[in-house]
Fold these 2 entries.
Entry 1:
Amino acid sequence: MKRRILSGALLALAACGQPSGPPPPPLPPQDAGRDVTADVSRDTLPADRPAPDRPLVVAPGGGEFQPPRATLRRLTQAQYRNCIQDLYGEDIAISRPMEPDSVVDGFASIGAAEASISPRGVEQYEALAYDLAEQLLVPARRARTVGCTPAGPIDDACARAALAPAGRRLWRRPLSPEELDALVAVARRAAMTLGDFHQGLGFAFAALLQSPDFLFRVELGVPDRARPDRRVFVGHELASRLAFFLWNGPPDDALLDAAVAGALDTPEGLASEARRLLLSPKARRGLRSFVTEWLELARLDDLTKDTQLFPSFSPELGPAAREQTLRDFERMAFDLEDDWRELLVTRETHVTHRLAAVYAVPGPARETDGFRLITLPENSPRRGLLGQVSVLALRSHPVATSPTLRGRFIREGILCGFIPPPPVDVNTALPAPSMERRSLRERLQLHLSGEACAGCHIRMDPLGLGLEPFDAIGRFRRMDNGVVIDASGRLDGMDFRDFQDLTRRLREHPDAGSCMVTHLYRYATGHVEGDPELSEIDRLTAFAETRGNRLREIMFALATSDGFRRAGPTAEMP
Amino acid sequence: MTRVVFARERMGVSEGFDLDGRDTPMGDMASCSRPDYVSPEGLRGVDNQLSQLAALLDLQTQGAVDGLVQAAVNNGQLLMAVTLEGVDDEREDPCVDMIFQRVQGVPTVGADGMLDPWQSYDPIPDTPVTRTRARIHEGVLEAGPFEGSVAVAVLDARFVLDLHGGRLRARLGEDGALTGVLGGGMSVSQLSDIIGTLNIPEAFMNLARSYIRTIADLDRREGRCQQFSAALSFSGRAAFVNR
């Protein structure tokens, strides 16, 4: 009840509007034309190798890169959690609901750039803010949170000493004197009413946590001196942008210090910090976040199948499959530092007891034994990402496989092709099995025989049929409704004999490399690229090829690229 | 093994094996007056006096015995594995090695109430492992006679039962599934001792001890049969036993 006394005042402080703050730092010297992409391998990451003084790759096509417009991005749920737990410890419970993520074009990070906060969301953020403030200021923790001992219920100096660093970390920039004064005033008024310094301070913390400066990533840039039609990210905005891309969390003190010192505003300084971030264990979390969004792995939490048809299915299978895929990506990127496309063909993967049973390979004797790294037998019909439950079960129906969904994932997710949605007046249901059309392959022929369907389905179904040896939960099978499964097909002019052959064709497909760069670009910048940005993606793709398509190299190149550092004007900011 | 049940006798018909090579009529003293049965396929001389004990247990537990055993299987308490090694042909192979052992793990159970296939289990240290030669003929695995042991764990009971002149016959199905019968002679004195260790009412304990003496039908020595014949029906799914 007490907390409601001042909530009106706090909301006024946290009212949405143009984010305020200290004036942006002076523009750095123009660095156009320089490229700081450098080896980011384990051996060289810590070293501050001199950056090459020329672009490593000339953009194919020759079109001039036009950066996207700058925008605000709301913290995703994962980013909110990571902010709190990175700054205050993993023992802080974030158990209240918050505004759900908005997924646009497959990415929550893109939706975040288009999302506002609903009235319900405001209430949820408010409740969460007070809950967190209370946890941060419980007696056992308050010494760590506050850092000073108040002289009495009213102690502006102590409140200021606590709120200045907290504000810097939560808002990811130093507070202006006016902002700090306002927060100290909130703490004072609440303490006067409640007769307790820490309870009063809790209201100021709640205000910090409800502010748009915390809930939104303010990345608007400053005018580019040499190109008035463009903006460039500098200082704290760039620090925040970098940290959320590479860590999916807030900048640490070292990164904020680098921003204050202007280090990020030089190519060398930016490269140095990008290297440091990519060597941090938090970079694994950043990669996991990207892979989770790209492959829509969050949907595995709600995976359902007809247990009459698939008695082995259980709700625990989806989360285990998600973790399997994430572990495989993490290992490929950070431990093996190998070409990410190997993930399409590798026989090495991580399994739990339950997953091993689905894959029919030896594994741990109990689920509580956790994950074990295994190598699938050489003669195993299964291999690579496309042979995992996370892909096979997610791109299936509850009662049957779906070569269309699976093929669409390959076409769009792996090759970045575009498949338009089906026309609204088309019946997408397949006919029931009959004596003439027993297998799914035979029934799907109808998709390819009608003009309205064939144009798109020819780009999906043949690829998805290559995954037919795996049922709707990902178990291997030889037969479909009494018919021996034929997994052969054709991929963009190349025949494939079976599932394994398909994975090899995909690994070598010329679009696979650029597609990964494209997905990372979308994730990092929070939007789907427009034509003027394709030259930048081409440049990054070509660079990735020279570095063996290693994910950490690609992330480094992207983090230090023009596509990441620059923005076009917004409608509000000419 | 995903399911293990006592092979029941009904109207003189029972699963099992002709363990003593005799088709014994009622009153034959060589089998201590216990009659043989006929298999469902019509083969005579089937020895399975355990079916009489099973009938008694059914009566005493109101038919709960199979459920208790199944629960022990499903919760991982009673996991038994048959492993085949050296199999060149799953339809015809005159010489394979069969390993029969209890294993451990925390299995997952499917919506059909049975252990999911292809699960992995660990061997149990210091637990008897029976290894014997076997053959596969027309997709049917046959092993025995062999001397083996069955480690049993049901509810709070843990014991090892020796199997004398053991036989196993199982049809190998697709994807490593199998269905069959395990049989052999069990020692009256050993089981009597085991019964004495069980947490059951004393009256029932005494009844069971007396009863197994009356059903003894094998290994007649010194005017008494020292063993009784037993047959267990089982089915199983493919699994892995970790090394």
Note: The mean pLDDT of chain B is 91.
Entry 2:
Amino acid sequence: MAESDTLDDSNRRNFLIKVTSVVGGAGAAAACLPFVASMNPSSDVLAKATTEVDLSAIPEEGVHTVAWQGKPVFIFHRTQEEIKAMEASDGGFDPEPDQKRVKRPEWLVVVGICTHLGCVPNKEGPGWTCHCHGSQYDDSGRVTRGPAPKNLAVPPYRFIAADKIIIGEA
Amino acid sequence: MKKLIVVLMLYCSTSPVWATDAKLENIQVETSVQAVERGVDDLMNNCHSCHSLKYIKYRDLATFGIDKKKIDEWRGDQPIDAPLAGLMSDEAAMQSFGLVPPDLSLMTKAREGGASYVYSYLLGYYNTPEGMTGNHIFPETKMPDPLGISSATEPAQRDELRKTAHDIVSFLSWAADPHEQERHRLGYYVIGYLVILTLLLYFVKNQVWSKLK
Amino acid sequence: MKNRIIKWIDQRFPLTSFVKHDLTGYPTPRNLSYWWNFGFLAGFVLMLQVATGIFLAMHYKADVTLSFDSIQHIMRDVNYGWLLRFMHATGASAFFLVIYIHMARTLYYGSYRAPRELMWWTGQGLLLMLMATAFMGYLLPWGQMSFWGATVITNLFRATPFIGEQVVTWLRGDYAVGDATLTRFFALHYLLPFLIIGGVVVHLVALHTVKSSNPSGIDLAAKDNIPFHPYFTIKDLYGLGIFLIVYCIFVFFLPNSLIEPANNIPANPMQTPTHIVPEWYFLPFYAILRSVPNLVGGVVAMGLSVMVFSFMPYLDRSHIPGGAHYRPWYRVTFYLFVADMLVLGYVGYTPPTNQSIVMGQVATFFYFILFMLLPFISKAEERWLIRRGLPPDVEAMIAGEAKEKSKLPQRRRRGDIT
């Protein structure tokens, strides 16, 4: 095998080879897309992206927990006193007025996942307490004691009837 | 080129279709939304009382582009995510027919002859001299003539039923392979791309090898 | 920077010398035809099957009540699930097609002869593992063909002396093919490809020890070897392009032609389909199994029909260089063998009738007779060719190559011809 048999660099970098490499590389990259896409939620999972909840069965002071996209969502029917108390303050570490966190003041809808490390807080007295690391939330789902950094998230939802909401669609 | 032919021959020689003894009428199914919509409509009226399509959900019909109003009519108070379950319970079916009517989701793929088989079968009913109905394509069938082809004598009426059967089969073909059109569309792009890439590789190969004395 | 990293690695791992010795500089006979592309293609299909298989396994459920539904879930709901599944199902056929051509090339050109016996035998082991993987993978969709195929094939082990029934029950983990069988087949179907990859490494190490054979059948002198890169990298890629076109025609336009209709019906242990057939790649061996009217005899015949290839280095006693190209008698034997395989494949596909059974028995007999006669055919042919003399150009080539080689005896033996 003589040295001249191997191609020198200038030849190898010629136009045709460049074009072919680009075309081939683009194809190989495109071929990866179906593999990546297959790991995204499938259409039957996506179809479960919204949850309808009938509120008429929840009494005042009652908390209803429903699953939305596999996560617990708390629906809390608040009394007038609780609404007043909540509207009076801006919460603790993550100040936010109560009006911004509800669509109708008597209904609080929050994702029941502690913003610290993802445990589910329990309803205890006024507000919620997370037993994993001791975080506390008030009746607006706002954090009042750490280590949780943020208020309980409000999921996108809207009223589709007087006493019916759909979670997952704003 | 020679290799390609050999390859194709090898592949083809292994996939002949063994149909029933009776001759099937070869048909080409329609893939348009309108034909499939007519097909679901006919199927809901003629087949759905006994047969389920458990792999098809009402939302699949909506995604494909079938009229939302009609879907709501068919599903009644079932959620949009519900499958097209049959209306007859397995026990009731066992009592009436001695077997559970097969699920139709994959029917056109599950029979030799595919859509042509189902079409010919639906239209294969005839009246026996004893006053019963028989079927040319599947003589052991337990299903009573669903479309009424055996008692249809008027040519116009028969044509109408043939059209109904054709629509039903078009829907069933879609149901058995809902991504077929997407697959074909993507296939043209992929093969077009591969032809270009292979040509380029061929030129590169010639260029590289031409350096060899 | 790049050089420093490579230098750092080279002090700890023979990266540069490996790349130079086995990839870029690997000396390859310049006269290889396109029939030598199929080894690379087999490696490519193996990788394709592993990739699609892993992604399918993310959605598949190995449970008799769920597996059929999970395939439909993949086909209908998973993003591009239909593509992955059809690629995998078509890939199985493509794998066997490529491997059978690879083997046919080896047989035609006599590449199994010394010093390449180990390549042939590792290849034979890879074929057996491939067959096992394909067979177990075929159960996973849990359709009628899956179930009855697995039932029939596991029943073959009833031919084991004394403990046949126990072996069958042990294989299935149940009295009939059931949930335990499905789950273990899935586990093994996932495992075996990685053993195959290990086997391929052994196959390639053997190849790089003895170097590629070539159509002339003569070990070429150094001047007729060229570096693998760029000549054969580009040739393999071009061949890959052609292969992918054919493969994609099947994946996108004819995927169902390779799937038996009965496998779209969920497995029913109470009812056998009227006509059960294995996948096309098992048909010739299945025909041999059916041709022997005795359980043990059939199983032995089928096993032997696969294993008989291993004896080729000893059955072929001719020392004439080159494959069938320079050996007219061997060439005829080769084509008779291919024709016989096709007949057996056809017989395996047709339902057993008196006529097809007789045809299968004749073809089976012929299959083994060809192998048994090969030592005599090859020896007689060798005598005939020596008496008659090889064609002058072949003689000239042998002489020329021998002269070239004698120039560099030392270096060639060390293998560092570059």
Note: The first helix of chain C runs from residue 2 to 10.
